[in-house]
Amino acid sequence: MSEKIGFIGLGIMGKPMAKNLVNAGYSLVVLDINTSAVNELTEMGAEAASSPADVASKVSKIITMLPDGPQVDEVVLGANGVLENAGSDTALIDMSSISPTVSKKIAASLAEKGARALDAPVSGGEPGAIAGQLAIMVGGPEDLFNDVKPIFDVVGKSAVLVGDTGAGQTCKLVNQILVGIHIEAMGEAFLLATKAGVDQMRVYEAIKGGLAGSNVLNAKVPLVLDRNFKPGFKINLHQKDLRNALEAATTMGLELPVTNIVQGMIGDLVDDGKGNDDHGGIVQALEKTNGVEIK
Amino acid sequence: MSEKIGFIGLGIMGKPMAKNLVNAGYSLVVLDINTSAVNELTEMGAEAASSPADVASKVSKIITMLPDGPQVDEVVLGANGVLENAGSDTALIDMSSISPTVSKKIAASLAEKGARALDAPVSGGEPGAIAGQLAIMVGGPEDLFNDVKPIFDVVGKSAVLVGDTGAGQTCKLVNQILVGIHIEAMGEAFLLATKAGVDQMRVYEAIKGGLAGSNVLNAKVPLVLDRNFKPGFKINLHQKDLRNALEAATTMGLELPVTNIVQGMIGDLVDDGKGNDDHGGIVQALEKTNGVEIK
Q1: Does B90 touch chain A (CB under 8 A)?
Q2: How far is B50 from chain A (nearest CA, A)?
Q3: In this structure, are B159 and B225 located in the same domain?
Q4: Rounded Cα–Cα distance for residues B91 and B73 (Å)
Q5: Rounded to an integer, what distance in angstroms lies between the CA atom of residue B238 and that of residue B284?
Q6: B194 is in which domain, residue-wise?
Q7: A189 touches chain B (CB under 8 A)
Q8: Which chain A residue shows the shortest CA-CA distance from B211?
Q9: Which of A198, A207, A249 sits opposite B192 (nearest CB)?
Q10: Residues A174 and A160 placed together within one structural domain of the fold
Q11: Would the CB atoms of A207 and B256 count as touching at under 8 Å?
Q12: Which residues of A are part of the catalytic machinery?
């Protein structure tokens, strides 16, 4: 008999992940405020739940894939939340990207009922979710990680246990700081090349194999040159991640000057109505200030 | 009979490059103010010259590998410079990393005597020079590039003709902007992880294959965690390259805010006597400001 697991949050990421789990033979109990997404899953054989508490009454392993910390907090700790029906066999697998502080708070509340949690945010965006090729960064107990690994193997191409509770979220913040700054680096470097009148693809070909090479360049240089900012991963989601990173830094007494600058640029772009562009489009802030487009 | 070429500048980069050319069968006419470096080459069979003009009287192809633009300007256009004995068969192959503006000025002066030039700066540092594995970024006439390609194949693993005169130097500036900002990105990301108490190598393993992955991370994360700042490529050379980049940007009316910040950090480190550290040590500026070391 197939294992029955809960899945709360059937958005742009959660829905394809849930479908991959159904297709891999798992019995799903699903929940979302979007009834059409729920219907897509029930038509595939999943069971619809009426509340997070209802999900927790029906299954022991519950995946959450929600927009940010406040939503995870509400679903787990709020009225009719997971916590109400959590017991010693309950395991929350929160795959949302949220603040490590919120992950620790939720894990501590669950622990009072003997329940356990993994924070397991992902990288790879919608294409990775659809293809089951996400990179999963996990924090929490090792035996629970090992127990859940078959689920991660369905939705992801890799799952690494980075450390204790919150370490998965910290790893995601590290990831997003790197990606955000790398996009800005690409912007500054290729804007200089544009103004100098040099062929950008030849520059890219000349440098990609050396120390300047990066996966951001490989993924985004061709898109920026095509002025293709269709998401991918939206600027306003990157804004959320850097907000969580900067809040975590402030809490720990750290100043991250370049992360701050990039977040300021992202804020300007969101104000300009570009929040739904792909995050490769962060270069547009620099282009606007300088009155020149990379081409 | 083996081709005879000139080589001016037998420093940390030039000397191993010249040796590789001798070992590949070229007859070299060499020049440097450091007589012990010259002696090393003459003991291998190279001929010593008395001035850049002397080199130009003996060979048609002349490689220069010098610290910065003023030195290349002096060697080519100064008293007893290459220009004095340059003719229509003379080809200057300047492999120094200098301002594209200086490269264009030198090429224009040589052109008045019918002589030609390539700007051909490299990436790969001392290890790349020793191994003959440099990445060479070239600007100038295509037929001259093709003519010189066998020389590039001895000292480098790749040589890409990026565009016209100055394009090689512009490409090097693009490279150094990217590398400098990527090092700072690594610093901000891994300082956050350090303060959060997460195992850095596990974080690196979890993210390296995704969008955050870069050659800077691959090369520098292990060294930073070992507090190993032995050069490699020195911070004060990166300072020179970013100075050339920011001067080029200013000339073109561009503002590069993050490049500016990184250059400010490098200036603080040079003031602190760390200019001879490897450029991976740029993270030390952020560490000092925050009073925490990455570990």
Answers
A1: no
A2: 36
A3: no
A4: 15
A5: 15
A6: 170-290
A7: yes
A8: A215
A9: A249
A10: no
A11: no
A12: 172
Q: Are residues A51 and A142 in the same domain?
A: yes
Q: What is the pLDDT along chain A (295 residues), one digit of tens a residue?
A: 579 999 999 999 999 999 999 999 999 999 999 999 999 999 999 999 999 999 999 999 999 999 999 999 999 999 999 999 999 999 999 999 999 999 999 999 999 999 999 999 999 888 899 999 999 999 999 999 999 999 999 999 999 999 999 999 999 999 999 999 999 999 999 999 999 999 999 999 999 988 999 999 999 999 999 999 998 889 999 999 999 999 999 999 999 999 999 999 999 999 999 999 999 999 999 999 999 999 9
CATH number at residue B134: 3.40.50.720
Q: Report the domain count for chain B.
A: 2
Is B123's Cβ below 8 Å from some Cβ in A?
Answer: yes
B174 contacts on A by Cβ (under 8 Å)? 189-190, 192-193, 203, 207, 212
Last residue within a domain, chosen from B114, B144, B164: B164
Q: How far is A46 from chain B (nearest CA, A)?
A: 31
Residue of B nearest to A258 (CA): B258
Give domain status of residue B221, yes or no.
yes
pTM of the model: 0.94
List the single residue in A160, A178, A185 with the smallest CB-CB distance to B205.
Answer: A160
What residues in A contact B292, CB-CB < 8 Å? 254
